[in-house]
Every structure is written in structure tokens, then in C-alpha cells.
Amino acid sequence: MTVSVQREDFDIAAEIARLSAADADIGAVVSFTGLVRRMTADGPITGMELEHYPGMTERALEAIAAEAEARWPLQGVRVIHRYGALEPGERIVLVLTASRHRQAAFEAAEFLMDYLKTSAPFWKKEDHAGETRWVDARDADDSAMARWKR
Amino acid sequence: MTVSVQREDFDIAAEIARLSAADADIGAVVSFTGLVRRMTADGPITGMELEHYPGMTERALEAIAAEAEARWPLQGVRVIHRYGALEPGERIVLVLTASRHRQAAFEAAEFLMDYLKTSAPFWKKEDHAGETRWVDARDADDSAMARWKR
Amino acid sequence: MQVLYFAWLRERVGAASEEIDPGGAATARELVERLVASEPRYGAAFADMAAVRVAVDQEMCDLDTSIAGAREVAFFPPVTGG
Amino acid sequence: MQVLYFAWLRERVGAASEEIDPGGAATARELVERLVASEPRYGAAFADMAAVRVAVDQEMCDLDTSIAGAREVAFFPPVTGG
């Protein structure tokens, strides 16, 4: 199982342990955990709702994971993305990569996050003291993504 | 507590949870876990002994962590490095970085690992079916480090 | 053809999905033009086409991609996950 | 002055640390020359100086760094942690 899209929280330690155990030649495991920040560009939030496109989300994440495995020598990839209502401090996303060497694990994890930010169908609606507001896409995410184009 | 040098294993989930809770504006936590690989450049190993320089090791890791905090806007850094006898599959090192944005967290974690590989006083002695052998430093680690010079 | 809307496009259209006959619309853009001409709520939803993205059968596409034979066309703003 | 050895340098010298009078040695390199002239075990340990690194008072240094006033000088191969 490479990709999960779920309401529930995830267990980082269990996920790392499972990926690490997959192959005795894994020397490097990189994790990225995304959290809901209290302070946003539009001020502090009390919560957010993460909408997604069931079906397409899983397909998009599977495609991103397959692309990472094609580009880097990985022993494992894992992507978990939550949806639904989330509060500040809660985990949103987990990306894990395992490789023989650290460089591949780091690069693949960055690639997965950059790609996910610009091509996985999720939309955040933040709650600013009772007034809800859809989050605008960040130009910085597009430029982060651009470096992987080839 | 930023740096630990210890014989004992570490609890990745507890470390990530502690770092994540330090600040409500942390949006990104990156972890790097280094594991003992069964297969090495010199063939399969049954174990290894990791020697270090007590006192200097802690100083070197503290200096690396401080340098990372000076270069990137981080909300937290954590480095744990083990020493002593380790078997294939066991964890050797944990590097954690927390930041508002993912780019800083990723770059700082890579910097910490590259720096640690070339300047923290640890030496690996691998056990090849009863014959022990000191590991040679990798040129690739020196060139990985070179990209951070300024 | 099933047409889906997400985020503020969904809110402005007032529906998450609709069964729509594309008529002569050959591309996603032509489908939008057809919708906008039919009812004001589509005009509000599609007022700023620079902020509209499209997926045809769950693949991210250009607005000028053909929708011939598509089962599912989805409109949404730029994604903000992760 | 306390002189420390690590990894295969420790094994070849046959000691993890020794109290050594640096005499007239002004740098780590001069200290090595003094040691090598004194006993064969040092000759074996310091045969390939390209593979020897030094720390003076727990700071990584060049072999030509001054050791005047140092409490602790350590010799070891390139590090291989992480």
C-alpha cells in the first residue's frame, strides 16, 4: 500500500517502521509531516476544512509516487493525506521515502511534496473566527514544482 | 535538548511529537533516519561497532545544529546519534527539523546530515563474517558537504 | 456527461455534480461557455477563467483539451493541499 | 598534553590516550614527527598522513595549526558516522 487518503490521523512511527523493514539494504528514511499552522497569511485560524476529489486524489497521488520511483532508486514510498475538518497542530500529510543513500531519499521526498502541492486535488477552507475563506494557491509552490520539470 | 549521543535506540514518534508541539506555527517537520545496511561496498556485514570521541562529538553536533538554525528559519532542531555495537536494520542517527515552510525544513535536514557525515567524530568498524574492517570515508560525502560552503 | 465542481466553484454553482449534455461543446472551455450562456450562477462561478482548472476523467488537463467521449469533467480552483 | 587516538590510529598506536610532553613541537604535524622518531608503533600509525585528521581541544583543525597551550590533541582517520 503506497497511498492513503483518509479522514483519520496516521501513526508516523508505525509507518516508518513498516517501510524500514521492507528491505535490509535501506540506509536512509526521510519523512515529511505537514501540520495545520495556527497563523496563516490571512491571520490566525481556529480550524480548516480540507475538501478533495475522491477517486482522482488517489490516482494523482499514485501517479506522483510512481514518478518518484521512476526517477530515484527507492526501496519504498508512502503517502498519506487527510481530508475533512482539521484543527491547528493537527497532521495533514505524511510523505516517506526509503533508499540506500540519503540523497535519493531527500530529493524524492521534496519532489513528492512539491508535486503534491501543485497537482493533488485538495482545497483548504480556513476558519477565521467564524468567517470561512478558501485558501489561494501560492506562487512559491508553482516555482518549487518547476525545478523538477524535464 | 538539541543533541544526544547515546548507546540506546530512540523513539522517532516521541521526538517528532515533542518538536511539533514546541510552536503552533510549525507547518513542516522533516525527519532523517539512518539505518545500518546489511550490504556494504565491501559485501554483507553481520554488525558494526561505532566509535566516537566523547565530548567532541557533542560539541561538533551542537555547532552543526547552531549553524543550521543560523542559516534557516527553524522552530526546532533535534539530532540523536548512537554509538557502540549495532546490527543491520538498527537505527544509527536521527535528524529532525521543524519550520513554518517545507523548503527550510528539507534544506536544513540535508545540511545537518551532510555536515554530520564529514565533521562529527564517529568511525564505523564493520564485521564481515568475523573479519572486522574500518570503513573508508566516501568522497561523495565530501562533495555533498561542499555545496553548503560559503 | 457528469460535471463536477469543487471548492468555491462548487459553492457558486450550487451543486457538487450535475449530469449535463455537452451538446456541441468539443472542449472544456466550450462546455464552460455553454454553461455560462445557460444560467447566471455559472457566470458567477466562471467569471475568472484564469483561476479555473479542469480534470477530464480524473486527469488534470488544459481547458482546450477535447472532452469527446469523457464520462467525467471536473472544474476547480488551483489546488491547495499538502 | 593529553594525546588521543581513534579508530585504526588507536589500534596501531596501541593506546586510546597518552600523556605526552610536546617538547619543541609547535604544530600537530611536528608532534607527529616527534612521535614517529620515538617508537616504531607511531611510524605504523602515521604512515599515511593524507589519511590523518586532527582535533585540537576538540575542534577539527589543520595539521599545521598551532598546538601551543592545547590540553588535548586527537588524531583519527576521516570520520564515517551518520
**How far do the termini of chain C sit from each other?**
30 Å
Low-confidence stretches of chain C: none
- Second rung of CATH, namely the architecture of chain C: Roll
Q: How would you spell out the order of helices and strands of chain A? A: EHEEEEHEEEHEEH
Number of strands of chain A: 10
Query: What value does the average pLDDT of chain A take?
Result: 95
Helix content, binned percent of chain C? 25-40%
Radius of gyration of chain C: 11 Å
Q: What count of domains describes the coordinates of chain A?
A: 1
Order of helical and strand elements of chain C: EHEHHEEE
How much strand of chain C? 15-25%
Q: Per CATH, what is the topology of chain A?
A: Aldehyde Oxidoreductase, domain 3
Bin the helical content of chain A.
Answer: 25-40%
Structural class of chain A: alpha+beta
CATH C-level name of chain A:
Alpha Beta
How far is the first residue's CA from the last residue's CA of chain A? Answer: 28 Å
CATH 2nd-level architecture of chain A: Alpha-Beta Complex
Shape of chain C: globular
Total count of helical runs of at least 4 residues of chain A: 4
Main sheet summary of chain A: 4 strands, mixed
Tell me about this structure.
Chain A has a four-stranded mixed beta sheet with strand order 1-6-8-2, sandwiched between helices. Chain A has a four-stranded antiparallel beta sheet with strand order 7-5-9-10, with no helix packed on it. In chain A, strands 3-4 form a two-stranded antiparallel sheet. The model of chain A has no long low-confidence stretch (mean pLDDT 95). Chain A has one domain: Alpha-Beta Complex (Aldehyde Oxidoreductase, domain 3). Chain A is built from four helices and ten strands. In chain A, 47% of the residues are buried. With 150 residues, chain A is an alpha+beta fold. Chain C is an alpha+beta fold and 82 residues long. Chain C has a single domain, classed as Ubiquitin-like (UB roll) (Roll). In chain C, 29% of the residues lie in helices and 23% in strands. Chain C is built from three helices and five strands, in the order βαβααβββ. In chain C, strands 2-1-5-3-4 form a five-stranded mixed beta sheet. The longest helix of chain C has 11 residues. The radius of gyration of chain C is 11 Å and the shape is globular. The mean pLDDT of chain C is 96. The chains are: A alpha+beta (150), C alpha+beta (82). Chains in contact: A-B, A-C, B-D. Chains A and B meet through helix 1, strand 2 and helix 3 of A and helix 1, strand 2 and helix 3 of B. Strand 2 of chain A pairs antiparallel with strand 2 of chain B, so a sheet runs across the interface.
